Queue: 2 jobs
Job 1
Amino acid sequence: MDSCLTLKYAYGQLGIRSELALTDLIVRETNGNSVLHGTSEPSWNDDGTVFNGHCILLLPDSGRHIDATVEQFEKVREQGGGPLVGRSVTSSEAIQPGQLLPPGTRLAVQRGEIVMMYTLSHLSVADVIDGQPWIIQHAHRHHRAGVNLASLLLQALRMPEVIGRARQAPHPRLRALLRAIGEAPQHVDDNRDLRFVLPGPNGPQSLRLDEIPLPPTTPAPYPRPIPARALDATSP
């Protein structure tokens, strides 16, 4: 849960939409043995501090899904490979970019000698996560961690061997951030936040990624508020 929420804010800072998804996971070996992880009925413990279940992150606009903590499971860890990034292709058809996956969707990924089969829960994020006190209490920490993670990524994208491709990425906010930071030096402050040193009206200023001014036409970071007209349309 922590990893998915941190990644969600990190992608959001770069203008990339992502959605948490509740899921179970069957890890199947070539000999037919299989192990079930997670549950189709995710829940919280009695005091609301421990999440019982598994979750992944969906990137609907690029048709991918991410399991940042998949190597917590022994058989997956034995294969190596790190966090899982797969294409969101179901057992029956490809998911179109931007389309949200319906409950019950199955996503299969092969890694080495195992197949990982995810099944999205019929319970939605709104049912289990949104409004949950632990999530609300720690939202600022996940946001901060996500901003710092996105900052580290931008540092990497400024490297000469990748900056050309990064400037062509299909994400206007990412491109605007790369232009804004340029070759600005960076440092870690006393709170362990990564900051970029940029020119300001009164001299150099040290800014976190979410504090850097961007042109007014730049898309806002995710998550974005639902427009009032969309809320009106769903009202009874």
Job 2
Amino acid sequence: MVTDAGLGPLPRVPGTDRPVPEAEPALVERWHSGGGELVDLLAQVREQVGGIGAFRLGPDPTVLVTDPQAVQHVLAHHPDRYVKRSHRARLLIGDGIVAATGAAWKRQRRLLQSQFTGTGMRRYEHRITEAARTTAGRWSEYARTGRTFDVGREMHRFALDTIWRSLTGHPLDEATERELASVAAVMAALPTLPADASDAQDAVAADLARIDAVARRAVEAARSGAAGPDGPGLVHLLVDGSSEHPEYTDRLIRDELVTLLVAGHETTATTLTWLYLLLDRYPAARERALAAGDEGSTQRRQAVQALIHETLRLYPPAWLLPRHAAEDDTLAGYAVKAGTDILVCPYLTHRDPQLWPDPESFAPQRFTVPDGRPTHPGAYLPFGIGPRACLGVQFALREATVLLEHLLPSHTVAFPSTPAKAAYGIVVRPDGPTPATLEPPRA
């Protein structure tokens, strides 16, 4: 709901030239002087001016969008008016599909889209299941020995194994896992890298070189016709596609491979880590999910998926979606000038008490009971909405569901300590390690 300093809903008059309500400069000044995460400032802006409001970090206003109708207008109805500019991870992913724009993005999406439909997903079912079984085997050993392990690292290992099998047809081996740790290292470094592109490149040059070497070997293997024990993977699709699409040079194939590595494991791993931290605080949620039906039943699967969706509501992978107004527009009755920076913030939309009662609580039943969640498409968008929504949504949900179906019935995770806060980078992640041990299932 768009409000103006508590005065009630503002009328939405098409064609108006009314300026977007702007937060008080003192609010931004307090944030600057006190430090803190950007999300803290955005939450205060929304509190002060509502679901569409402006604030100034420089001479020009930035417009924050959390109102579901405005979110849908920007992302789904008019993506050509509100465009992506340079992606924050371009240093790592180059011109891969997440960073690509315009005609190049459309070509790349067409090539990949069929791989992530219901039919396309079938070729990855076995690979997802084998990665989950591998993780379940490790957890059984942790339970037997009482060994302490890091849940976040385990979830990264699982998700990386899953996407590596899907890309190459090979399970993740220890040497490749060590080399691909450079992906996480670059992702973690991105928010603190120098503004100058050359200096930023130099700061992570060694990690980028290791990533490039892994990608080069995978592409060379695909070009030679070699497939893994699970058959060809997405890299083979990209290599084969280069015969009909000359724009798929070795460099672009590398960029697409690294993009799929990042998008295919970082967000899933972080979501699963948050889910286990939330179950530590809300243990009854696990018991309700397991009691919803027998193993393999539709009811059990729906209850497990509700755990995932509620975690995604609280900690959406795409927590902030920057856009740039390419032309003048009217947004929710307000004038938005060409050149304006837009910040769509699913994190705040998902925590709006007018949309989600008791929004800070972990309540998976929102996704299983009638009228438990808002139906507007702009009210729940953990992977974005519209044409630039994440291609791999079904893949991510499927791998998370399969892993939880393997792990939840067998183990209760006990954390001696948990991170005190979240860190808001490209994804929202726990700000610290997540050591844990495993206990037998609670009765």
